[in-house]
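Thread: "does anyone have the structure for this chain?"

Original post by V.I.:
We have the sequence but no experimental structure in hand. Need at least a predicted one for the grant figures.
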Amino acid sequence: MQIIPQTCPMPEIDWKKIRENYPEIHRGLYFNTAFIGLVAQSQQGIIQEAMLKMTQNFSALRADLLEEMSIIREEIAASVCCPSDFLALIPNLSEGIYSVAQMLRPLQKVMLYKGDYPALNLPFQKLGYDIIWLEQEEDLSPENIEQSLLKSNTKILALSWVQFKTGYRIDLERIAQICKSLGILLVLDATQGWCVFQTDLEKNDHIIFVASAYKWATAGLGMGILAMSPKWLEQYPPPLISTSQISTYDYFDDLGLIPLSMRVFELGHPHLLGILMLRHGIQNIREMGIQNIQDRVLSLSRHLSESLENQGFTLLSSHSDAHRSSIVVIPFEQGLSDYLQANSVELTGRGAGIRLSVHFYNDFEDIDRLIEIIQAYKSNKK
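Reply from O.Q.:
Generated one for you, tokens below.
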């Protein structure tokens, strides 16, 4: 169920043509997808059509969406290689992680990394879990994680696929194998990796995958996904209930009669515009091919890293291809950050670093122009 099967030849990609579908990329130098991903020009047509229908026959539009949801779920579920019954469409990562942390409370104990994204760690802290802390980024290697898990007697490991401060990408395949062999649930904040790197949730059915869609899925604000095998719902029933699971408005004396499925996490009415934008974003990803995107992003990231090192910067992001991601980080310098932004370079500061991030709509010329601006900054300092 991969987006583009590995056995199929990868399509020839015209990256310049794809780039034209993201007009904001031409406004300056955009190295800020780790903060928010650009939205395709073609999304405008999707939204305009939906808004027109909303003003003319809103009830029919809603009915059409509900009828199409099974197809939409299959398309989105394919982005993480799982059946559609693994999938819940949620507003964002924060809501998804909090729901998962509530669901898994009977396990009582979790292993977290201190430098990880707060929205991943805070729900477990707030709900009073017994926490085993990983202290350093070096602790995230498969070998160190395995040793820590063996010592800790915990049944949950919660980590980000890609660290938001440094861009460090965990070896998800090996860590997933370790967790499966030890009977441990891996709760994954996948926001900074989804739609760039591949995973197979049907094979790795002990992963609970949560991600917001406004970054690398290029789907705008207000949507995310929560994906896991429904078998975990039976073992750890979530303390949530959604009327989207029922086809009657009768009163229920016995809530056990309501079927248990991933739709339990889909509270309230569906976010119509958000779902349409997410669907279109995933369709664009599928047309490009996730392997093509991964290769493109890693090539750009490598070129950016090497170019910055050639300018004398010490990278705070990984030098290793095994842990490289779309995020490259150099030590924070206020003057440089201000100068780059004054010269229309979009970026963010995170922790002790200036964070630069690339996606498929970037090109090598963007990076070369960035280096020219940095060189000009250095010349002005002399």
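V.I.: this helps a lot. The domain at 44-287 is CATH 3.40.640.10 (Aspartate Aminotransferase; domain 2).
O.Q.: and The radius of gyration is 22 Å.
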